[in-house]
Design a protein that fits this description.
Structural class: alpha+beta
Strand content: 25-35%
Order of helices and strands: HHEEEHEEEH
Largest sheet: 6 strands, antiparallel
Helix content: 25-40%
Radius of gyration: 14 Å
Shape: globular
Number of helices: 4
């Protein structure tokens, strides 16, 4: 299980050492993916400057055919457009879902945001149906919030 608090402390140490958001985003993905056997694909998408798409910054897992996802399309695009986290418990249940990995059965999208500003999202996929719990979302949200702090600071 992901220890979001421990990963946040590591990210803060990186911030204190002068690392920018690109390094923190990569470190976060590398900290989340191996933390739980249920997590088969983990990636960070950033909102493009025009606010029309999210684009894949980095990931761990099988290759993906979706490096750009329009807002409103699939779980990632819907979460970013609606400004709310989204969990899909069963990918094949008729939802408009765009998954990054072919064998994905469930998906959790957690926004990287500061206030009303959405910077991107963390997409976690699993080969297990109904894989994600509220605890998983809370742990990933801690990490997303720390990433948002850095991204907001860089915008100033």
């Amino acid at each position: 299980m992901l220890d979001g608090g421990a990963l946040v402390k590591e990210l803060q140490t990186m911030r204190d050492d002068g690392h920018l958001s690109d390094a923190l985003l990569r470190y976060a993905v590398r900290g989340i993916e191996p933390s739980d056997d249920r997590f088969s694909w983990v990636g960070v998408y950033r909102l493009d400057e025009g606010g029309e798409d999210v684009w894949l910054h980095n990931y761990l897992g099988p290759g993906t055919e979706h490096p750009r996802i329009p807002l409103g399309v699939g779980a990632c695009g819907k979460a970013a457009a609606d400004g709310a986290n989204l969990t899909v418990t069963a990918v094949g249940d008729g939802e408009d879902v765009v998954v990054s990995a072919e064998d994905t059965q469930s998906q959790m999208v957690v926004l990287i945001r500061a206030g009303d500003d959405v910077f991107g999202l963390i997409n976690v996929e699993s080969e297990e149906e109904g894989a994600f719990t509220e605890d998983d979302e809370m742990a990933v949200q801690l990490v997303a919030d720390k990433l948002a702090e850095q991204m907001a600071a860089e915008r100033r």
